[in-house]
TrEMBL record:
Domain Major facilitator superfamily (MFS) profile: residue ranges: 27-442
Residue ranges that the Swiss-Prot or TrEMBL entry lists as coiled coil: none
Top-level taxonomic group: Bacteria
Keywords linked to the UniProt accession: Membrane, Transmembrane, Transmembrane helix, Transport
Subcellular localization(s) per the UniProt record: Membrane
Keyword Transport annotated: yes
Top-level taxonomy: Bacteria, Pseudomonadati, Pseudomonadota, Betaproteobacteria, Burkholderiales
Species of provenance: Delftia acidovorans
Residue intervals passing through the bilayer: 21-41, 61-82, 94-113, 153-175, 195-216, 252-273, 293-315, 322-345, 351-376, 388-409, 421-445
Major place of residence: membrane
Protein's recorded name: MFS transporter
Amino acid sequence: MSLPYPPGRVSTPAPAESNGLGYAYYVTIILLLAYTLSFVDRQILGLLVQPIKKDLQLSDWVFSIVHGFAFAIFYTFVGIFLGRLADRWNRRNLIVIGMAIWVVATAAGGYVTGFVSLFVARMFVGVGEAALSPAAYSMLADYFPPERRARAMSIYTSGVYIGSATAFIVGGLVIQATSQAGEVVFPLLGSFKPWQAAFIFVALPGIPLVALMYTVREPVRRGLQAAGASARAAAAAGPAPDLSHVFRNKRAFLPLLLAPGITAMITFGVTAWLPATFIRQWGWTPGEIGPAYGVIILTFGIGGMLLSGFLADYLTARGKQVGSIVISLVATGVLIASGLVLAFAPSPTVALVAVAVTTFFLGMPVALAPPILQAVTPNQLRGQVTSIYLLLINLIGLGLGPFLVAFFTDFVFHDEKLVGLSLGLVSALAALLSVLCLASAIGPYRRLVAAMEGRA
């Protein structure tokens, strides 16, 4: 007998078809909650720039290292290993272990005393969160047929915006409320400054969510032999695909992997520095910009993601295999203009309108990148390709996005009040580069989809 999983490591998989779409969407919601929590824990730092800089005596560019590189480097390189593990091991259990690590590491942010301890805490947040998306996207691809994947994955990916919104709304209100008292006391945990208490608050929901994740069952991997298949049948299927598939089709994969990473510079740049822009340039408080930006994310961001998922599924069902790329291309083109408006906004009202437009259209390429890649990736490679996709998102997007904004502010403009100008220009440049990548991918992607459908 040839088993698709190592013996003793995986519970009986749940056939997606027998459970129906109802259970598949239940799994999607649970994974969405986990992804939402991961982005709350990841993005809360954006609201805490000013108090952390003051108490730990950090400059903008040093803070950007903690916000970006500390998380991104470990998230991405550990993610490569975990992506490979997700292709071979129980994906639900992998997610549970990762969640436990990042929840504890987030809470540890309440105890940091300097740059090094904050760096280490954020590093372990990255290590834990690296387990989630490679396993989650692989599971969703097994729970849903191709014509329904974009919709399901856009729901899951909306956790980016739901989590960011929650971080800004709840975080802003918590900071404003607790700053009145000066200290926050948690029984058994100790006394904390308001910014330290924010880490504890956002970590607490992770405890019941880890337990809820145990209600998710491992699905059968589409395209692989069932556990009882004979060795002869497995051998007849030929050698398992490996990463040479990606290299052979690099004209499609390279731009499709680079584009999300470059676009992510906008996502992480805005979430890291938009609060500071309004606080420094227009005198807003965290309690004002946090909820305002959070509402924009919840409405415009999620709206753009869900609309793009429905449009992509509509086009795919009608044979338009490059429809998802075209949607992403058009939406990213709009981001060039909205970035320039943000850079030169004369008032906070104009800036918020630019942010709303950016958030709506940014949600489209963010939501569609995973199903675009899944459509041309064999089942046995989905976790690994997802880990490469996440590696580039975090190395380029999270590693460079916040850092370049801080670099322009500190070393080009030499004025921290011009962080909005830096943010808008970096966003417009990133959008332009992403448009070029997507445009170059259309032809190779169309040919690769046709070739894979011919072999199916």
